[in-house]
């Protein structure tokens, strides 16, 4: 298995520290607002990675943290007139609803920053004792960036270049403008915890160093996150953790690609910023997930009406192939026509190449369509394999009929009315009144319902090609 390592900027053969076991940490959400599409990208990318590693036989411990104390959280709680805990609990519950709708499995552990204050202050104390951090006279504690020799290695950046190009707030309490905060002294009335340096709260970067080490050990296999976290967040995590422990912090660094909206960067200032729940009010969750899976996890995704339409059509091809094929428990097709399982594994072993894995699944769907009328037993085996491979990507787990008719509630006709018109059309055809039969078909088509005639009778699907 080859995985691209952001640290080395190369694909490397993945060898876990402990044979058969994978320890992975992914930076999670700061819970002051609803999750947006960028969060969905990271959620789904590492959900697929976790699913595949487990399918390959690895015992995966997946940790994704929650930042539940932060400047943004303090401001939002004050703006809303609610307590910090009320705000964060509400946003965490909403996050779990969003990921469930996107078929994202919950991580094994979901540590919260406020639950690890002891580990955080202990790590800061170690850094002070080793000379990598210092307590300023204002009650803050800072990390000495120039003290750590490897600073900048994740991003391949030189300290002096960082200093010249950085927009750094002037802070008279810092020894060096590049130094960053580990502990923030509390302002009057702010949420705070006791520490050797006075009441305060942790800085963002130290939270992840402490929580990941606590949950997974001083060195672990994979650390992931969004594309905006390589600097300074992950760079600072490396500096803190390796200075504190004297050991390599992480062996493989992985970063998901960004989400663009109509080819532009998603941002509130451009008015193209969407929360997950806003998107799911308009679009089938599996369609959104397919869009996120169809691109390689390191590639940028373009979120646009045309890309969603393409995702819908692709899923319809799969579900149409599965429609009407009874799938029961039984042996899956490990080797057979097209060697689908082996090709799927080869694609995913190549840095989780989901576009190539989906290409294999399309080949499998075409073969299923070819044999379904000739060999029902072989069709069942192929359908079972298609669903099994789809499950690795978190796809194709709905009943085909349910997906293909999934937007029926938005149509002008109810399901009973649609079925009544189909029955009336059948009677018209039986009476050789083809003008009336065509009129009923055209009426349904004009209202977004496409009829499909086959030997077994007439079925229908929602026509999604015209919407966005």
For this entry, give a set of tags.
single chain, 468 residues, alpha/beta, four-stranded parallel beta sheet, four-stranded antiparallel beta sheet, 16 helices, 45% helix, elongated
Low-confidence stretches at least 5 residues in length (pLDDT < 50)?
A: none
Distance between the termini: 38 Å
**Class computed from helices, strands and strand pairing:** alpha/beta
Widest sheet: strand ordering: 4-3-9-10
Helix content: 40-55%
Secondary structure tally: strands:
15
Number of helices: 16
Shape: elongated
Rg: 27 Å
Global mean pLDDT: 91
Main sheet characteristics: 4 strands, parallel
Strand content: 5-15%
What does this structure look like?
The protein is α/β, with parallel strands linked by helices and 468 residues long. Helix content is 45%, strand content 14%. It has helices at residues 37-55, 71-80, 84-101, 117-129, 159-165, 204-216, 230-245, 276-282, 285-294, 305-322, 340-349, 354-371, 376-392, 400-404, 415-430, 434-446; strands at 2-5, 10-13, 21-26, 59-64, 133-135, 141-143, 180-185, 200-202, 220-225, 250-255, 259-261, 264-265, 301-303, 449-454, 457-462. The strands form 5 sheets. Strands 4-3-9-10 form a 4-stranded parallel sheet, sandwiched between helices. A 4-stranded antiparallel sheet has the order 5-6-7-8. A hairpin with a 4-residue loop joins strand 1 and strand 2. Helix 2 (71-80) crosses helix 3 (84-101), helix 9 (285-294) packs across helix 10 (305-322) and helix 12 runs antiparallel to helix 13. The longest helix has 19 residues, at 37-55. The chain is elongated and about 95 Å long. The two termini are 38 Å apart. The mean pLDDT is 91.
């Amino acid at each position: 298995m080859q995985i691209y390592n952001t640290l080395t900027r190369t694909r490397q053969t993945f060898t876990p520290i402990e044979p058969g076991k994978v320890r992975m940490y992914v930076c999670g959400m700061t819970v002051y607002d609803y999750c947006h599409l960028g969060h969905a990208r990271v959620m789904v990318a590492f959900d697929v990675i976790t699913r595949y590693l487990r399918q390959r036989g690895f015992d995966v411990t997946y940790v994704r943290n929650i930042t539940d104390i932060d400047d943004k959280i303090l401001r939002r709680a004050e703006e809303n007139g609610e307590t910090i805990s009320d705000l964060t609990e509400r946003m965490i519950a909403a996050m779990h609803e969003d990921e469930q709708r996107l078929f994202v499995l919950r991580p094994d552990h979901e540590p919260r920053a406020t639950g690890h204050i002891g580990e955080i202050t202990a790590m800061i104390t170690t850094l002070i004792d080793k000379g990598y951090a210092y307590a300023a006279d204002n009650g803050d504690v800072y990390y000495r960036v120039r003290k750590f020799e490897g600073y900048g290695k994740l991003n391949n950046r030189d300290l002096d270049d960082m200093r010249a190009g950085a927009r750094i707030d002037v802070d008279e309490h810092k020894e060096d403008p590049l130094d960053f905060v580990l502990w923030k002294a509390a302002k009057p009335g702010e949420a705070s915890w006791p520490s050797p340096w006075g009441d305060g709260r942790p800085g963002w970067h130290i939270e992840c160093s402490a929580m990941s080490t606590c949950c997974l050990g001083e060195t672990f296999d994979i650390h992931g996150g969004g594309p905006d976290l390589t600097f300074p967040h992950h760079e600072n995590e490396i500096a803190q953790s390796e200075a504190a422990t004297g050991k390599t912090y992480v062996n493989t660094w992985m970063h998901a690609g960004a989400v663009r909206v109509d080819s532009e960067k998603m941002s509130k200032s451009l008015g193209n910023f969407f929360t997950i729940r806003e998107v799911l009010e308009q679009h089938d969750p599996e369609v959104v997930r397919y869009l996120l899976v169809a691109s390689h996890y390191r590639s940028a995704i373009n979120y646009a009406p045309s890309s969603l339409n393409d995702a819908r059509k692709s899923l319809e091809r799969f579900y149409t192939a599965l429609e009407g094929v009874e799938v029961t428990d039984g042996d899956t097709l490990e080797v057979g026509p097209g060697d689908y399982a082996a090709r799927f594994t080869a694609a995913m072993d190549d840095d989780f190449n989901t576009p190539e894995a989906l290409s294999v699944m399309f080949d499998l769907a075409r073969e299923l369509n070819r044999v379904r009328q000739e060999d029902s037993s072989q069709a069942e085996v192929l359908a079972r394999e298609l669903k099994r491979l789809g499950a690795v990507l978190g796809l194709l787990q709905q009943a085909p009929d349910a997906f293909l008719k999934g937007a029926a509630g938005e149509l002008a006709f109810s399901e009973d009315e649609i079925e009544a018109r189909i029955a009336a059309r059948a009677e018209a055809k039986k009476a050789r009144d083809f003008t009336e039969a065509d009129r009923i078909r055209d009426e349904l088509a004009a209202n977004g319902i496409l009829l499909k005639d086959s030997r077994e009778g007439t079925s229908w699907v929602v026509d999604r090609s015209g919407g966005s």
